[in-house]
Design the sequence.
């Protein structure tokens, strides 16, 4: 049951959606597929008075070839996108991460925009109100310190978007429209590096599209999870190779994907790239596998992935 | 070939399947009664605390609230399966012992109001020091959770047979290993729910249960009501696996709310409450010592097993014993010492589980493989050598009347091409075998037996009335099939009235593997008596010798003269005419030694019969990531004789998931007294895509006591599938794997430990 009552609105265009947001400023949330939002509302992590549904805004669902760029509407569904010819032809890392996202029934509801803007996760945070109240609120709930690492003053929740990791290797840009107009930024610029509030996004801003430079890439995505489907990543590693340069990204072990450029020959440089990432990540015991193990798997998955991709490219 | 039976042994679509797969079957949460209220429970936010005061006055003043109950409304009776384990008040009186313990209940006109009322109940607590680890809890100076259990040891089961120390001293080889597995969740798809209605002094209850008669008895005690006034009604149950065996706190809360408000009340637990506030599975640490001769004969066994019992006793002594019993029922132990300790901690309540004892069973079987390797024996050979045979006794003196371990092992091995498969393994592949034998029923006093009534209706159809309870495994269909076979009428001619304490007679319930063996036997006997009555009327009416008559296709037929026959309904009507309607009773009481007791006297005949089973699993292991996959699985189960072949195979396949694949992933995770994964996302029940190719092998030992030779439908797989997988992983990796489940992080840790220790 969703404990808090809310109003439901279905605007037909972005302007109306933003206007509604401003009308109910501070009490409204946007809804796409709802596969991240609704579980949060059920747990009482989110108690909006108004839910603004973006699914009726047709212009947000399409994939367009704009010449130099491919524009992916933020409301495109994961399931449709993974079967899209452009995605399959040009962006294999993305195709693989889409395929690895949760399971097909959720892919049919979940959108790419919602996927990028899903909140960060922690076993001590994604719990019911009773659970959280009895344990004592953590940083991400407005408390004094972390519950996963008792006493810590940093939040260690993991940002678990599979597709953000892949998109980072493809030099994606995103478009945001809000009360102050429209802006376009690098996907990497979306992240605040603070797990408790992972995004640099202004109140009321709608993610309208994702842009990918139209350049054929080779690439792939490796996902660590316990079961063959449904599970969020415990670690995600993406690699794309475009026009002589490789990009490696590591996700689900912190508040954002960690991205490193690597030069050929990869055999020599991938280790260094992984080192750069290892210096930045601090996995803790806030998800189901041992944190040291998750860290240990970064070089393993990265090495395998780069080899596999480059073998395939030969 | 002539079939021995008409419908027994066929692959019949279960009688309950259509309603379930089309969503038309109703479960407790679907029930709607006029004026029904919604219940919610206020739960302890502390793992351990004194309750200083409870003030419900504000909640009672909230419009829409119809009743609030606390321990003050209960009768001071505590629950426990045995007199010596009655320690659980079901609604906390002056102390809470786990997060989520029931403190008060509210019944209101709707869910929102009930939830709002919970916030208005003021409880003053004084937190107490808590303890979460059973080994810590046993130490001197640990917080004492119940005054009556020194060192928090709730149950100590001690079994001693033969001369254990001498046998170890003489053994050719002795190994000692410790295995640990955290608790599991039952993960029933149906979250717990209760509907209670009280009128004219009678309390009616619909609740997922595995035995209505045992449930009603427990509630009549807790409510201090006469047993005949507490009526547990039949309802579909969405999964059980041990979790629905015992009375639950929600039963008491909902009953009290119904009595107090005068309205029917429904309580539906959330997924989280289902995980934390109904029963869970024990965390187990097993130290296993085995001594063998040069030829692999087991000469001595010694066990020290510590069970994390959570806050209360529940099935305490049974849970503390079963893993050992299902092992001694499979293998010959001339000298054995077992010490099982169930320890109280400040965690949720725990009960029996269909796959109870993963660390113990998987540990024993992996250790047996280590021993076999040192002796240069094949794992199959050492198992056959030590397996019990018909006519032998278990260490604690139960006679095996059918089956034996050898046949399931041989059939499983044959199906899997054991020798060739083993020889052909590639790097990173392994194959393993796990065995177990399981009791069909166990001592429950006069409740160990079952009784059935059958009446023939004027259209020639039958109504059978039995206490048999179906929690999803197909027991109802089984009862109907047995009646159909005996009475010679199709299943659609049989009405079943079951699992309703007002209408049905005693039955042990859907646990202890007694449903077919005990309940099915009673159905068979009742129908046989009805058949005798029909045939004796028919003999007179048809003027034909009774010995030559039989029932087939709704007809009384001659066994020798195909022209001699008469519709059965004519006979039934004739019986009504004569004022002697066809009605019969049948009962079955298994041959058990009722002097046997779990703690005081753990010796004597435990059950009427035993089923035997062997599983074989093949795994692949990724040595770099530690990830294990199970591509292939063979399960051989001696069910005596399958009543419904498809239903038995279904149970075996479900068991491969629930034990075999689950041993790679399933575990409850805790942060002190808080369960970190009370859901189905972070508690990793294997998915369809994780499942292996499964080859079920049905072994027929044709039990002399069981109905049509039947024993039970698949529990050996549920208790040995773990072992097959962990043995296969051990076979692939060659290092001890002492920590379950075999998640990739644990596997890598074990590999690294072996590397630095240089041992295998
Ligand atoms: C069981 C389960 C398993 C899952 N497994 C995975 C997994 O393996 N990998 C993975 O990446 N994800 C996983 N998810 C998360 C989720 O399903 C996906 O991320 C999905 O793509 C989210 O998209 P959505 O459209 O449903 O988002 P929503 O729930 O609708 O939205 C997510 C958030 O973004 C905001 N939002 C949505 N759209 C916009 C927009 N256009 N502009 C501004 N704000 C917006 C919402 O307000 C909300 O806060 C899982 C979810 C569940 C329930």
Sequence:
């Amino acid at each position: 049951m969703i404990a808090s009552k809310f109003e439901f609105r279905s605007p037909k265009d972005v302007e109306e959606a933003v206007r509604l947001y401003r009308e109910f400023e501070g009490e409204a949330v946007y809804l796409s597929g709802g596969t991240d939002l609704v579980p949060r509302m059920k747990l009482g992590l989110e108690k909006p008075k108004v839910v603004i549904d973006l699914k009726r805004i047709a212009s947000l669902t399409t994939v367009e070839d704009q010449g130099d760029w491919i524009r992916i509407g933020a409301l495109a569904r994961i399931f449709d996108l993974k079967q899209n010819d452009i995605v399959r032809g040009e962006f294999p890392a993305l195709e693989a991460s889409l395929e690895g996202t949760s399971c097909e029934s959720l892919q049919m509801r979940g959108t790419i925009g919602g996927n990028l803007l899903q909140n960060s996760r922690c076993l001590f945070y994604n719990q019911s109100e009773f659970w959280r109240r009895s344990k004592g609120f953590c940083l991400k709930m407005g408390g004094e310190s972390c519950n996963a690492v008792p006493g810590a003053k940093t939040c260690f929740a993991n940002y678990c978007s599979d597709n953000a990791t892949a998109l980072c290797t493809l030099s994606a840009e995103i478009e945001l429209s809000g009360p102050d107009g429209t802006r376009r930024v690098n996907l990497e610029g979306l992240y605040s590096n603070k797990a408790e509030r992972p995004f640099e996004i202004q109140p009321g801003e709608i993610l309208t599209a994702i842009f990918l430079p139209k350049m054929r890439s080779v690439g792939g995505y490796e996902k660590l999870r316990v079961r063959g489907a449904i599970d969020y990543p415990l670690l995600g590693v993406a690699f794309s190779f475009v026009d002589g340069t490789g990009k490696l990204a590591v996700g689900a072990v912190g508040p954002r994907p960690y991205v490193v450029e690597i030069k050929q020959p990869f055999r020599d440089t991938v280790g260094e790239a992984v080192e750069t990432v290892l210096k930045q990540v601090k996995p803790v015991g806030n998800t189901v596998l041992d944190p040291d193990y998750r860290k240990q798997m970064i070089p393993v998955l990265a090495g395998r992935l780069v080899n596999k991709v480059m073998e395939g490219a030969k | 070939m002539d079939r021995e039976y008409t419908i027994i042994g066929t692959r019949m679509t279960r009688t309950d399947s259509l309603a379930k797969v089309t969503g038309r079957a109703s479960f407790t949460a679907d029930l709607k009664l006029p004026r029904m209220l919604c219940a919610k429970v206020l739960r302890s936010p502390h793992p351990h605390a004194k309750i200083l005061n409870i003030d419900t006055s504000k909640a009672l003043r909230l419009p829409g609230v119809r009743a609030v109950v606390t321990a003050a409304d209960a009768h001071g009776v505590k629950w426990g399966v045995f007199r010596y384990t009655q320690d659980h008040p079901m609604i906390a009186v002056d102390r809470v012992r786990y997060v989520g313990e029931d403190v008060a209940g509210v019944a209101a006109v709707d869910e929102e109001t009930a939830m709002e009322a919970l916030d208005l109940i003021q409880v003053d607590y004084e937190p107490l020091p808590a303890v979460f680890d059973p080994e810590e809890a046993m130490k001197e100076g640990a917080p004492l959770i119940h005054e009556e259990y020194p060192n928090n040891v709730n149950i100590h089961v001690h079994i001693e047979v033969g001369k254990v120390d001498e046998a170890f001293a003489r053994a050719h080889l002795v190994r000692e290993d410790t295995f640990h597995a955290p608790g599991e969740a039952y993960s029933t798809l149906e979250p717990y729910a209760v509907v209670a209605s009280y009128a004219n002094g009678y309390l009616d209850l619909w609740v997922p249960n595995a035995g209505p008669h045992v449930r009603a008895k427990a509630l009549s005690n807790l409510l201090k009501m006469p047993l005949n006034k507490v009526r547990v009604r039949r309802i579909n149950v969405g999964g059980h696996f041990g979790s629905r065996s015992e009375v639950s706190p929600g039963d008491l809360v909902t009953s009290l709310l119904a009595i107090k408000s005068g309205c029917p009340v429904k309580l539906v637990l959330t997924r989280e409450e289902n995980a934390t506030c109904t029963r869970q599975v024990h965390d187990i640490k097993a130290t296993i010592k085995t001594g063998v001769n040069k030829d692999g004969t087991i000469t001595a066994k010694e066990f020290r097993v510590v069970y994390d019992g959570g806050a209360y006793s529940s099935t305490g002594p049974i849970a503390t014993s079963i893993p050992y019993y299902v092992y001694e029922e499979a293998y010959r132990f001339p000298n054995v010492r077992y010490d099982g300790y169930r320890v109280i901690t400040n965690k949720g309540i725990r009960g029996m589980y269909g796959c109870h004892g993963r660390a113990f069973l998987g540990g024993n079987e992996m250790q047996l493989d280590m021993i076999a390797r040192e002796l240069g024996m094949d794992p199959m050979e050492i198992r056959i050598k030590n397996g019990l045979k018909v006519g032998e006794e278990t260490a604690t003196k139960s006679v095996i009347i059918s089956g034996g371990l050898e046949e399931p092992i041989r059939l499983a091995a044959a199906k899997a091409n054991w020798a060739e498969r083993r020889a052909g393994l590639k790097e990173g592949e392994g194959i393993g075998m796990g065995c177990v034998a399981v009791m069909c029923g166990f001592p429950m006093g006069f409740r160990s037996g079952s009784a059935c009534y059958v009446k023939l209706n004027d259209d020639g159809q039958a109504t059978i009335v039995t206490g048999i309870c179906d929690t999803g495994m197909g027991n109802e269909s089984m009862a109907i099939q047995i009646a159909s076979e005996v009475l010679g009428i199709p299943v659609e001619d049989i009405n079943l009235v079951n699992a309703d304490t007002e209408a049905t007679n005693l039955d042990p319930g859907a646990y202890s593997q007694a449903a077919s063996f005990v309940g099915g036997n009673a159905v068979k006997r009742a129908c046989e008596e009805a058949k005798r009555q029909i045939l004796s009327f028919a003999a007179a009416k048809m003027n034909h010798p009774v010995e030559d008559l039989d029932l087939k296709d709704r007809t009384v037929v001659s066994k020798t003269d195909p022209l001699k026959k008469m519709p059965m309904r004519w006979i039934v009507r004739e019986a009504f005419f004569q004022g002697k309607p066809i009605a019969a009773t049948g009962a079955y009481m298994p041959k058990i030694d009722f002097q046997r007791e779990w703690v005081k006297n753990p010796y004597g005949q435990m059950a009427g019969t035993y089923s035997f089973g062997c599983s074989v699993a093949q795994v692949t292991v990724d040595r770099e990531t530690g990830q294990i996959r199970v591509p292939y699985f063979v399960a051989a189960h001696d069910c005596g004789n399958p009543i419904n072949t498809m239903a038995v195979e279904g149970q075996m396949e479900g068991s491969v998931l629930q034990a075999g694949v689950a041993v790679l992933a399933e575990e409850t995770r805790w942060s002190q007294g808080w369960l970190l994964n009370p859901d189905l996302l972070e508690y990793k029940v294997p998915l369809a895509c994780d499942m292996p190719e499964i080859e079920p092998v049905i072994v027929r030992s044709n039990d002399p006591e069981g109905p049509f030779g039947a024993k039970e439908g698949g529990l050996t797989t549920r208790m040995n599938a773990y072992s097959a997988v962990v043995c296969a992983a051990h076979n692939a990796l060659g290092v001890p794997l002492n920590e379950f489940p075999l998640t990739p992080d644990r596997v890598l840790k074990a590999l690294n430990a072996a590397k630095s220790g240089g041992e295998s």
